[in-house]
Amino acid sequence: MAEHIRIGDVAPRVHYVADGAQTVFVYPFPIFGADDIEVHVDGLRIASGFAVSGAGKSEGGTITFAVPLAAGAKVVLRRRLVMERVTDYQPNGVLRANTLNDELDRQMAALQELREDTAGALRQGPGEVGGKFVLPMRAARANRLLGFDSLGDIATFSRGEATLSAPFPGAIPRTVEDKLSERLSARDFGAMGNGTTDDGPALQAAMNAAAASGKFLDIGEGTYRTTIPLVLPGAAAGLSMRGAILYAGAGGEAALTLGDGAAIRNRARIYQGLRVLRAGISSWEDERDIGILIRNQDSGLIDVRQVEGFTIGVQTLGVERGFEDTVLYLGRLVDNRYGLDVRTASAAAWNTSVRYYGGHFAHSFATWPEKDRYGIRLSAAPGAYVAHNRHVFDGPAFELQSRDRPIDGIPFLIQVNSRGVVARNIRMEGCDPYVARHTAGAQDHFYEVAWASQAYGVDIDYTASATRVGSVVRALHQAAGHRESTRAVGEVPNLRAAAIRWNASETGFEKLACLSTNVSGTPTTLPQFTFQALDGYALTDRGVILPGGRGLGFVVDTRDCKEFALAVDADNPRMVIQCFGAGNVLLTEADGEMVRASGMSLTYVAGPRWWQGNADSNDASLTRLQVVRLAPQVQSAIIGVARVGTDYEVRSMRLACDPSRSPTLLYGTPELPHGVREVKAELAWDPPSIAAGGSAQVNVPCAGARPGDFVQASFSLSTSGVVFLAQVGAQDVVTVTAWNRSGAAIDLNPGTVRVRAVKS
Fold this sequence. Notes:
The protein is mainly β. It is built from six helices and 60 strands.
């Protein structure tokens, strides 16, 4: 300050009554800093929503409110200094006039405040001397009236009123007034709750009183209509509602605000049974139109029963500090464009570590049918903090009425860089095929969809502005068992690459058995139904066309594992299962129901002797992700697909089971030789003496060898100087030639000739 303040004889307090338009109020007394003035409205001190000017000036200054106060509001401005000494004079130091004047000014200002405070206190007149005015001990004055005896000294007297006491040992008698004052009721302040009377002023008075006393406020049964937005300051212990607030005021306001804003922490508050309804559906265009605004909660417990008709139903807001470590129980949030908005207002705020239970986010079919809607939004004001981390949602249900409409109806809209967001047991009804839309840097989100009208066809929509991906959707509806089958039993990721040219007309496939719908003869055992190759398969660039009468399947040992998930990349395939009991003997419908599926009925077909699905497997009918469960007597099974109605392309196949099991996939064995690209054989041979440059030949029977196969031969003994060559001499025969390349005759000892034919 260039000059010290001049402290005149001016009371450090001024009173006003607001007219509904005025925003600027003058204080005629000097203050040293903006923090030296207190602002009270209707008896309640407020800490934000106004600006202070004129600090350091002798003539005082002004208080300017951001919005006009309601007409009739009582405004008190008073100076209130911090009682501290801010100077220290040093021995032999310079005693500066300005420093001394400032110190004396502060002392004079403090004395004026003291005079102002004592002016309203009980005190003796200037002509009286003496007297006893010390209060009696607490126990002596409890539940008694304070008065004066015959000498004019302080004394206590009986209240002459009945008292109450709890019917338990140690209970203390209390007056009815004392008992009733434990909690405040909105009806104590004139609220009617009849749905027609404007209860707004009475409700606000009750909320101010709850804040001033630090007590809990009860809003009882009934409908409390209000034309003004209501604020329950953070100083109130909490709020309990058994009725509902009906907001009939102007748009662009929060109907009910809970807690203080700015940087004030509202800690361990309890809000129960919250119900706020809008008298008419909002336009959904003004995001200031909020049902319940909850600010800066820390370790709170909040129970929202019903909010209807707003642009934003419920908004949790970190203003200049955090909204955190709080539990919210959510009920019906209906016909709000955003049911719940998790938001920050500034860079100093945060909104993290909150748990949510329940929540029914719904819309009527006729409510703004042309406008997008979302259940839960994570958002931030421009420039505000965007790491909304560690939010957990349990069991939310969404009925957004957007399916088959040209609008978006998505349960979660994530516009921030949140991490660690988990939503479990989600229900989606009439929504888009997206459980969430990510527009920024959100990652590590997990969405578990328990039920959806889209079944397992649910995904995350990453918009062009999204900078992170990798969140997870776990859609369980019609696919729970399939999702849990994570151990791969057999996998053919590319049927075109796995194709085996068995001969000029027949094709086989790695790991798979070729199946026929019309096996000749009277087959009764597993090997008679599994073929290394069959004709009719038509290879494509990426797979194979299954023609009439053909199928492909995995053969699996099912003695210990009974449940399998089949995944097929194909165009409307038909699932088939063939069952075999002890000794690999065929099981038919005469043996009972050997197999069931998770999402379709299975019918036994006598011709191919297998069970097959009653419809093609596809997403449209929710039948693609199937789990099959085999009867206890099934010891091995063929699980695959076959052509039933029309030809179709199969590109890949995968068989999986529960990760606690590891059943054997059966292929390439002596009993079941299907599914391998090479055939092998061996023969005992005692070669004759082979002259220099000469050769000897032997024919080795090799089932499956065909002209055009790549063949090799070897001998079980040392063959130095002798080279063994092989070729397919005839079907199922490999001709082996032993050629002596040395300059002398060689007579090999008896040994074993081994041959291998590899098919292209």
